[in-house]
Design brief:
Blueprint (H helix, E strand, L loop, with lengths): L19 H11 L21 H98 L6 E5 L1 H7 L9 E5 L6 E4 L2 E4 L2 H8 L15
Parallel strand pairs: 1-2
Antiparallel strand pairs: 1-3, 3-4
Protein name: Flagellar assembly protein FliH
Keywords: Coiled coil
Length: about 220
């Protein structure tokens, strides 16, 4: 850098000669010397103000979605826990209540069936007894026919209730050696030589009245 006297920069009004400073300025200006200018920042375009309402609404929607998802997860968890609890309670109920109740129900049904059977038996007993007596008489008559054919004058003893003997008296022909013996027994017994025929009316009546499973005798021939 060159140092010039300050007088060179003071203009002179006496003459119109160029001064040294002017010459220097001319020379400096005339020379193709680049001039450094200070750098100024470029003006950036102004950004629009933020949309606060939109930002708030977006955040609100995001919060609602997150809360809704959390509620769905909690609901699913509670539903699974409720189903597990219900299954456990059902199992406990089956063990504590259902099994004893099923046993009691079976016993109650059995008792009901027995009571119903007894009631029906009592109601039908007179009709069944009469029907059994008639059936026994018919079967007895069928057994008597061959017995009469082979009796050859042998004595035939018939014992039973008067009502049944009254019917059987009409079966035996006149002149047949028959002895009728009236008894209090329900059944009718016919004996001739080595043959014994006996009805089973008392046995069936006893079953209707619940007096044992069987009262048969092995010697008589069942009808």
């Amino acid at each position: 850098m060159r140092h010039l006297p300050i007088a060179a920069f003071i203009p002179s009004f006496d003459e119109a000669k160029p001064s040294i400073g002017d010459a220097w300025l001319v020379q400096e200006v005339g020379d193709d010397v680049p001039v450094d200018l200070p750098a100024f920042p470029l003006k950036t375009p102004r950004q629009p103000p933020p949309d606060l309402d939109g930002i708030f609404e977006s955040g609100r929607q995001a919060g609602l979605a997150e809360a809704r998802a959390e509620a769905q997860r909690d609901l699913a968890k509670q539903r699974n826990e409720a189903e597990a609890t219900l299954a456990a309670e059902r199992l406990r109920w089956a063990e504590d209540v259902a099994a004893p109740f099923a046993s009691q129900l079976a016993d109650a049904l059995q008792a009901l069936a027995e009571n119903l059977s007894d009631t029906v038996g009592r109601l039908l007993r007179p009709f069944l007894a009469t029907e059994m007596r008639d059936a026994a008489c018919r079967a007895l008559i069928q057994q008597i026919a061959p017995l009469l054919a082979g009796a050859d004058g042998a004595l035939i003893r018939v014992s039973g209730s008067p009502a049944l003997l009254e019917t059987l008296r009409l079966v035996f022909p006149a002149g047949q050696a028959v002895e009728f013996v009236e008894t209090d027994a329900v059944d009718v017994t016919i004996v001739t030589r080595d043959t014994v025929i006996e009805t089973r009316i008392a046995e069936w009546v006893g079953r209707l009245e619940g007096q044992g499973p069987d009262r048969r005798r092995h010697a008589p021939t069942p009808i």
